[in-house]
Automatic annotation (TrEMBL):
Organism: Phyllobacterium phragmitis
UniProt keyword Membrane, yes or no: yes
Residue ranges of the TM segments: 31-50
Keywords for the protein's UniProt record, in alphabetical order: Membrane, Transmembrane, Transmembrane helix
Protein name, as recorded: Peptide ABC transporter permease
Length: 51
């Protein structure tokens, strides 16, 4: 973090300003993530068909 003397604001490098990332390193985490996505789609379809 570098302080800009002219405007009194902080400047962050691109590496430090990045957002978080999803890390799916293990097979179990990938399966849980995909199951969650599929579950969300099934839930959305069920709600849409119910109304």
């Amino acid at each position: 973090m570098v302080k800009n003397k002219e405007s009194e604001q902080f400047t962050y490098s691109g590496e430090k300003a990045r957002q978080g990332e999803i890390i799916l390193r293990t097979r179990t985490r990938r399966i849980i993530f995909i199951a969650g996505l599929v579950g969300f789609i099934v839930l959305a379809l069920a709600v849409r068909l119910a109304f």
